[in-house]
Amino acid sequence: MSSYRFHSGLQRGAKFDYGFSQEAVKNEPMFFNAGFTHAYRNGGPITQAFLRAFDAEWLNNNETPLRYTDVVFDSRVHMLMPKWYPCIPGFHHDDVPRGENGQPDYGPSRAYRSNHCMGLVNGDICPTQFALGDADLSIPENDIIYKHWHPEVEQLIADGKLGLVEAESGRLLYFDCDTLHQGQAAVGNGWRWFGRISWNTERSKHVTNETRNQVQVYLEYPMEGW
Question: CB under 8 Å to 96, separation ≥6 — which residues?
Fold first, then answer.
């Protein structure tokens, strides 16, 4: 069995306006695979606040600035109740190229290495968790990688070899395709907004500007999805 050494990192960025009412969160449009300009023009006040903060901090001021056409945007609005998940549970990486077997490709010749910036509104009811630090994980030959990795990551956290951090609402959070993270079960009732900007990904070359009107929630143990 081979292994993969990674650095799971997270950088806290600027704050953005997150003092929105439950009604505002509920009515915020959702996007999938959308361009920056399309999302800003067609989004509600939450989407616009998040994108403005990213524009001011990264697009304009970073040492290697990005163009609007370099990024792709996704967002989700969930109505949650305790023990409901806004995504498939389990520690995983975002946007790793898939191999011929349909599993993430961690080989040296992978097609790209993606970067991301995420934000939450009303995330306190269900904050994203990040497992941070350096670690080696084994890559199974005939199993679902993230299903195999999840208990390994949990054990590394329990042993103090990886630190556990929860995302805060109204904060830009920067990470990459090596950052382990997971959604967790909601601890309260309410509407939650999640937004993510991605770059250095093939997705930015194939923007489809989809507006989503429905989004599902998940219950415990649907790990087979990963």
Answer: 104, 105, 106, 110, 114, 177
In degrees rounded to 5, what are phi and psi of residue 73? -125, 140
Q: Position of tokens 């990551």?
A: 153
- Overall pTM > 0.90: yes
pLDDT in tens, 136-176: 998 888 788 999 999 999 999 999 999 999 999 999 999 99
Tell the residue number behind the tokens 């084994």, with chain if given. 138
Kindly report each contact of residues 215-219 with a partner whose C-beta sits within 8 Å and lies 24 or more positions away, as own/partner. Answer: 215/30, 215/76, 215/77, 215/78, 217/78, 217/79, 217/80, 217/84, 217/85, 217/86, 218/84, 218/85, 218/86, 218/87, 218/88, 218/89, 219/83, 219/84, 219/85
What are the pLDDT digits (tens) for 88-133? Answer: 889 999 999 998 888 898 888 889 999 999 999 999 999 999 999 9
Q: Where are the domains of the chain?
A: 2-225
CATH architecture of 2-225: Sandwich (2.60)
Specify the pLDDT at position 225.
43
**In this predicted structure, what is the pLDDT of residue 110?**
87
Residue type, 57: E
Q: How far apart are CA 170 and CA 17, in angstroms?
A: 6
Strands 190-199 and 180-182: unpaired
